[in-house]
Amino acid sequence: KKVGTTPLTLNAVKPGKYKLVLESEEGTIRRDVSVRAGERFIAQETFMPGWLTVHSRIPVDVMMNGNRIGASGDGQLLLPPGRHKVTFTNAQYNYRDTETVEIDPGRVLAHNVRLPLGRVNIDAPAGAEVWVEGERVGEGPMQGVRVPIGTREVIVRHPSFGERREFVE
After folding, report:
1. Buried b (16+ CB within 10 A) or exposed e, 40-51
2. pLDDT score at 43
3. Quick one: DSSP state of residue 134?
4. What is the DSSP code string of 68-93?
5. CA 167 – CA 163 distance, rounded (Å)
6. Residue 91 region, left (φ>0) first, then alpha (ψ -120 to 50), else beta?
7. What's the Cα-to-Cα distance from 77 to each of 31, 57, 71, 110, 117, rounded to whole Å?
8. Which of 50, 96, 100, 125 is the 20 to 30 Å CA partner of 166?
9. Is the bond preceding residue 116 a cis peptide, omega within 30 degrees?
């Protein structure tokens, strides 16, 4: 519950664990705090930005409140502290996902984009081993092999016809 505006002293707080939330025009800071019997607890926080680093196997634009704030290849994106809804998009792969991230002041949050699965059909002679991204997935021909969207390396190895390597999207 809202208890006041800083600077603030609270007396007669019962010992226990609490969620401390500081809100400002510069962002929001959330902390878990413990108050111990007979001790004074002092919360000192500085509102400063944090950073978001986005890792993805496909390039994605990073959007917040409908505005592009960067891309997955940009390194660290500066954001105010607090919870933010961030949207990741890639038009080529028709990909769009929104996640809530929590930015802590002065810290870097690494976010890994979870890509959905697509399907690939592999036209290979019977008896050929099929590998996708270095993992054996079966013998050809194969229909509807589920793989994460993006560019994938497919290798087909046949005892009589040799090996063929392709990159597919």
Report:
1. eeeeeeebeebb
2. 87
3. T
4. EEEEGGG-EEEE-SEEEEEEEEETTT
5. 14
6. alpha
7. 22, 18, 9, 10, 27
8. 96
9. no
Query: Residue 96 is encoded by which pair of tokens?
Result: 């769009």
Q: How many CB atoms lie within 10 A of CB 82?
A: 21
Would you say the pTM of this structure is higher than 0.90?
no
Structure tokens at 124: 């290979």
Mean pLDDT per 10-residue section of the chain, whose length is 169 residues:
88 91 86 90 87 97 96 95 96 96 94 95 94 95 94 95 94
Picking from 34, 43, 42, 40, the residue whose alpha carbon sits closest to that of residue 15 is 34
**Can you read off the two tokens belonging to residue 54?**
């986005």
Q: Is the dihedral of CA 134, 135, 139, 140 positive or negative?
A: negative
